[in-house]
Amino acid sequence: MKPVLFVTGHVPADRAGAFERLHERVGVELALYGGRHLHGAPPAAPPATVPHRFVEQREIGALVRSGGYRAVVAGTGGRVALPAAWWASRRAGVPFVFWAALWRTPRTAAHLAALPLMRSIYRDAGAVVTYGEHVSAYVRRHGATRVFVAPQAVDNAFWSAPGAPRADERFAALFVGRAAPEKGLAVALEAWRLAALDGTLTLVGDLRARSPDGVVATGSLAASDLRNFYASSDVLVVPSVSTRGFIEPWGLVVNEAMNQGAAIIASDAVGAAAGGLVREGRNGLIVREREPAALAAAMTALAADRPRCAALGAAGRDDVRAYTFDAWAEGFAGALAIAAPQRLRAGSVEA
User: Fold this and answer.
1) Among the CATH numbers 3.40.50.2000, 3.30.420.10, 3.90.470.20, 3.30.565.10, which is that of 4-153+324-346?
2) What average pLDDT does the structure give for the chain?
């Protein structure tokens, strides 16, 4: 059987297991065109068990038309990769599946200019696979009708393994991310200053910031060391903010922290909150973006009620179990199963 061509820039380490599961189910070949590593994902080699090739974006159209693939999947990365894959699939009669991450329209000139094209792709694709229900609602508003969710997932077995024992019983908050404005580090620091809690706010990542009292910066950490910080933290703070060019599509740090039983305080600009993993009052608290006072109040409330904080974390540990690599792969498998029949009924491919 011909493989499915999966067009993407990179396979970050935290997504390698998902692609392995997908390959086991449907048989894929990755077409990797490189480019900037989005969302801070570190460079990583593609999984050895999944066939792959490195390509230039200008080569994607010819690859799709080569006759070597039974379907094509492409996401939104790259300047020309998506339109090239979609247009070539139309010309060649190859079923096309779009992997969508946006849940609001960025307000840059480039994004607004591309919106008519994106609407055409949403309407025309044999199926659309989304990060979560927040993205599904967005693509349906723009014309998609055959929509499947591939829930964002991490290696739950790794991230739920026991961490190092906790040495400090004071309230411990954690921020994991980059210093990029959209990650909301400035909001987290101001909120911590306002809260004036007896405890620590630990910053993990390549961060350089003037820190108020009680803030500790560790720099970037290996995954096993980061797991220990999740285990010893009461809450993970995810204060992302939307900008003209970026809206946090998910935030896999949420999945990681939930596996260790940390409660989540997320802004309403975080995809994991909009998409339903972070649930207000069940496994975390959701605050308005760009409001340090609201974030400070949320941290203060959980610091004052540690049993409630622990209960939120325990619920999160239960909830994240459904967000697996297998569930991610099943979302794509379902989309691929319906995409080809849609093309046949449309008369694009001879039966």
Assistant:
1) 3.40.50.2000
2) 93
